[in-house]
Specification:
Layout (H helix, E strand, L loop, with lengths): L11 E6 L4 E6 L5 E6 L4 E6 L5 E8 L9 E9 L4 E7 L6 E6 L5 E5 L4 E5 L6 E5 L4 E7 L4 E6 L4 E6 L4 E7 L4 E6 L5 E6 L4 E6 L4 E7 L11 E5 L5 E6 L4 E6 L4 E7 L4 E6 L5 E6 L4 E6 L5 E6 L4 E6 L1
Antiparallel strand pairs: 1-2, 1-28, 2-3, 4-5, 5-6, 6-7, 8-9, 9-10, 10-11, 12-13, 13-14, 14-15, 16-17, 17-18, 18-19, 20-21, 21-22, 22-23, 24-25, 25-26, 26-27
């Protein structure tokens, strides 16, 4: 069964452009823009719906983590065929929704940054349950193999562990240099967590909640206190890490966790997406408003295209 958060790519692209308050659409073969939506506020992260015809997109509001000006309370549902904003889901308070993931039961999970919580949402009825994480949860990942949701508490030294069915926090995974970006492998067995203060990647057993390996991220300047993101390719073969202040991406072989490539990028590398051919990935470079396409096995940049300002997240569908 395909993990709903690690799907193979498709022939079209959807990109959030958060500072322009837009979502844009592109043809993945020609890289031509095919449409755009004006969003009601700054929109950050996305996840495909179960049928792949829509995306849920977090409407974060103004500002950035720790400096939230006019935080929002909505998650948008975007129709990919019509390229329109279908409706909004109100999460009940101005909590700045950010990371979004979907589980196999159809529950939409979202971080509630200003509520120190993770939300489990029924996207049809809008009913939700809030899970207290104790600190500001920024990003999350779902492991169906472990039946857990993991949330990185960015200004704290742990990842919150949540029982997916009981919807309660059951533990903490220690991250001494503060928890940043995180993801789960497509098979649900491995959890990858980036440190905030150092160029370090932690690899956990998602089921046993034990640390398997600590890996140094080589190639960038290693600046402290920076935004880092990590994703595993849908086939499970590659682990990609972006470091925003270093303007750098590292690619690791997932089996050995050997770093196989180091890429100098335009300013502000952020979210990854994965191409239909299984050999390439896309990277949003937020500050320069450009999306790169690169070869996963070599790190070679093969193409790029401009977007509206503040591109943060990309999905090939």
């Amino acid at each position: 069964m395909i993990d709903p958060n690690n799907r193979p790519g498709g022939p079209r692209l959807v990109v959030t452009c958060k500072t322009a308050n837009k979502v844009q659409f592109f043809d993945a073969e020609t890289l031509e823009k095919t449409g755009e939506i004006d969003m009601p506020a700054s929109t950050h992260e996305m996840v495909l719906s179960a049928d792949g015809r829509q995306v849920f997109a977090s409407v974060y509001g103004g500002g950035i983590f720790g400096r939230n000006a006019n935080p929002d309370r909505r998650i948008a549902l975007i129709d990919l065929e019509r390229r329109t904003l279908a409706r909004m889901i109100d999460v009940g308070a101005d909590v700045a929704p950010h990371g979004v993931m979907l589980d196999r039961d159809g529950t939409l999970w979202s971080t509630a940054e200003l509520g120190n919580a993770v939300l489990a949402i029924d996207p049809v009825s809008g009913d939700l349950r809030s899970v207290d994480t104790g600190k500001a949860a920024h990003w999350l990942a779902v492991s169906h193999e472990a039946d857990k949701v993991f949330a990185s508490c960015k200004t704290s030294d742990f990842v919150a562990v949540i029982d997916r069915r009981k919807r309660t926090m059951t533990g903490r995974l220690p991250i001494p240099d503060l928890a940043e970006g995180l993801c789960v492998s497509p098979d649900g067995r491995s959890l990858f967590v980036c440190a905030h203060r150092s160029p370090t990647l932690y690899v956990f057993d998602a089921i046993a909640e034990t640390l398997r390996k600590t890996v140094a991220i080589a190639g960038g300047e290693g600046k402290p206190n920076q935004l880092k993101r990590v994703r595993v390719s849908p086939d499970g073969h590659f682990v990609c890490v972006s470091s925003l202040l270093d303007n750098h991406v590292a690619i690791f072989d997932a089996a050995s966790m050997t770093q196989i490539a180091s890429i100098a990028t335009p300013k502000g590398p952020m979210g990854f997406g994965f191409a239909q051919d299984g050999r390439h990935a896309f990277l949003c470079c937020h500050d320069d408003a450009v999306v790169l396409e690169f070869d996963l096995s070599s790190g070679e940049i093969t193409r790029q295209f401009q977007t509206a300002s503040g591109c943060e997240y990309v999905i090939a569908y």
